[in-house]
Structure formats: C-alpha cells, structure tokens
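Protein in question kept underneath.
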Amino acid sequence: MKKEILERYEHTEDGEIIVGVSAQKVEDLYNDFDKRSHFLKKDLNEDLVDYLADSVSEIGDEKFVIQFNLETHAHNEDLSRVKNSIQNFFLYMQKLETKKMQGMIRTSLILLFIGLIVATLSILINKSELVSNSVTWAVIAEGLTVAAWVSLWEALATFLIKWMPYKRKISLYNKIQNAKIEFLFFQNHTLV
C-alpha cells in the first residue's frame, strides 16, 4: 500500500518526494481575511496547512521537498518570507502540541496521585472495624475502591496510549518546519 502511495508523488533527481503546491501568486498561500497585513503577520492558508500535514503524514519517513509552483514570478524577499512563514507556523504548531502533551501528562500525574490516596483510604477503611459493623461504611469503602481504580486506570491509559498522537503531531510538524522548500515559476520554468 505504501509503495502505491509514494508512486502518486513526483520525485526529484535525488529521489526525494516532491510535495507540490500550485498557486497563482504568493498571496494565495495566505488567508484572505488579513490581505492588508504585512507578510510576517499573515496566517498561512488553512487548506495549505492541511495539505502539507496530510501529505507529509502520508509519505512517512521518506525524504521530501516542498515545491511551490507559482504562475507569476515573485521577488526573492517574498519567497524568503514564505519560507519563514512555513517554518514559523509549524514551529508554533509544534510548541502548541508540546504544551498540550505536557498538560495531559500533568493531568495524568494528578489522577495517579489522587488514585493512590483514594486507594490508601479504601484499604484503611476496609481493614478497620467500621466496615464489618456498618453497611454505610462498607458502601463507602467499595465506592472508594472503584474511584481509586478508575483514577489509576485513567492515569495508566494516558501514560500508555494518549500521549502518542501528540508525539506524532510534534514529529510531523518538525519535519515540515525543517523541510527543504523550492519555488518553480510556470512562466519560465525556473527553479529557485
């Protein structure tokens, strides 16, 4: 299956996969809502971001180059700004996902701590004479046992499973941020 996916992409002479993006002009790579903003303050077009993320995710660990095919020629300064925009945007996304992952791990540690405290309380109540003398205390002890189990399970599930999507996104954004970027102009088929 992966071979079929990789065959859909063009390749450079060096064998790198070309993630091609076609646009009429440089301004088309940015969101429309901030047309009057300076390039450095503009947001990348959401469709462009999704396309780059989906393509790089699809090709996996293969070497790639992002190639912008523009119909109109652009100044070197504008091309440099596009490169900086892509690098800065995906660095920002990488930091955002890292922050989310850290928050999730922090929550998991809190759940682990709470689970251990509740489990300890449950054990202490179960060992005391209160449970054998009172139905209410027996129900409370069982409730604490279930609450401890749920809290510990959630903490364990987070450590084992939930952090992986964040890690994948961080890795994906890092690849795009550090990708080689080229520009090709249709008018004279010049590669920059």
